[in-house]
């Protein structure tokens, strides 16, 4: 019955969606494709290459590039994204996150990261919270991305917690679906979107306490 917490990163620990958006928008513009914020919503939780494929399909350019060219485009996007993260610091933690992680530590509840982002370790380091996490799932090791449950099952296993005793925190619909398919309790965090299938939804982590998850 040992509990464990599994967190998505982008949109749960910190708000990097705005930086992903700027970098994808610039890349798309150079390819003659215009994306807006509503389209950006559909990229949340989706891997870098899958996001690029979605953008190319959206702009009817899905057959215009070789794999090597697509890898170069994804690299260009990531270079801009990483530049935009240069000033990221503890001040960029979303409200309530630090307090919740401290409570988890005080209660000896292990925490893991289940993020599609290959930049997760660097981002957590910049935010000053890397040490709170027992494990960060390496997205390179996954066969399938969210909404497949694989990343969440791996995250729970990595901290020696059975999925049924793990609580997952997500801001994206694909993530909630993955958490539920893994057999875990799903907490949706979003002010604007209704996350269907979540066991509990809050606008911010300030509304949560570790205590409320001890006996679910
Ligand atoms: C997810 C984001 O966490 O990570 C997506 O929600 C992003 O928008 C994906 O594309 C991959 O991130 P990265 O940092 O590896 O390009
Ligand atoms: Mg997210």
Automatic annotation (TrEMBL):
Cofactor, how bound (note): Binds 2 magnesium ions per subunit.
Name this protein carries in UniProt: Beta-phosphoglucomutase
Entry binding sites for Mg(2+): 8, 10, 170-171
Family designation: Belongs to the HAD-like hydrolase superfamily. CbbY/CbbZ/Gph/YieH family.
Residues at the catalytic site: 8, 10
Keywords: Magnesium, Metal-binding
GO biological process per UniProt: carbohydrate metabolic process
Molecular function per GO: beta-phosphoglucomutase activity; magnesium ion binding; sugar-phosphatase activity
Listed cofactors: Mg(2+)
A Pfam entry, by short name: Hydrolase
Record site feature (Important for catalytic activity and assists the phosphoryl transfer reaction to Asp8 by balancing charge and orienting the reacting groups), residues: 115, 146
Organism name: Enterococcus moraviensis ATCC BAA-383
Keyword check for ATP-binding: no
Binding site for substrate: 8-10, 24, 43-48, 51, 77, 115-119, 146
Stored PANTHER family: FRUCTOSE-1-PHOSPHATE PHOSPHATASE, GLYCEROL-1-PHOSPHATE PHOSPHOHYDROLASE 1-RELATED
UniProt lineage: Bacteria, Bacillati, Bacillota, Bacilli, Lactobacillales
InterPro entries with a match to the protein in the record: B-phosphoglucomutase_hydrolase, Beta-PGM, HAD-like_sf, HAD-like_SPP, HAD-SF_hydro_IA, HAD_sf, PGP-like_dom2
């Amino acid at each position: 019955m040992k509990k464990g917490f599994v967190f998505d990163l982008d949109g749960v620990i910190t708000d990097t969606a705005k930086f992903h958006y700027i970098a994808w928008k610039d890349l798309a513009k150079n390819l003659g494709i215009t994306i807006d914020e509503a389209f950006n919503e559909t990229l949340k939780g989706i891997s870098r290459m899958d996001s690029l494929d979605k953008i190319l399909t959206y702009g009817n350019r899905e057959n215009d590039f070789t794999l090597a060219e697509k890898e170069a485009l994804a690299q260009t996007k990531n270079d801009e994204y990483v530049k935009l993260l240069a000033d990221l610091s503890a001040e960029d933690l979303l409200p309530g996150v630090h307090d919740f992680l401290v409570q988890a530590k005080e209660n000896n509840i292990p925490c893991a990261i289940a993020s599609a982002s290959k930049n997760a370790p660097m981002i957590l380091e910049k935010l000053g919270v890397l040490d709170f996490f027992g494990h960060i799932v390496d997205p390179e090791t996954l066969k399938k991305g969210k909404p497949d449950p694989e990343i969440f099952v791996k995250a729970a296993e990595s901290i020696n917690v059975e999925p049924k005793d793990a609580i997952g925190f997500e801001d994206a619909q694909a993530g909630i679906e993955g958490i539920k398919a893994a057999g875990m309790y799903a907490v949706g965090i979003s002010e604007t979107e209704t996350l269907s299938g979540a066991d509990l939804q809050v606008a911010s982590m300030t509304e949560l306490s570790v205590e409320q998850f001890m006996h679910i």
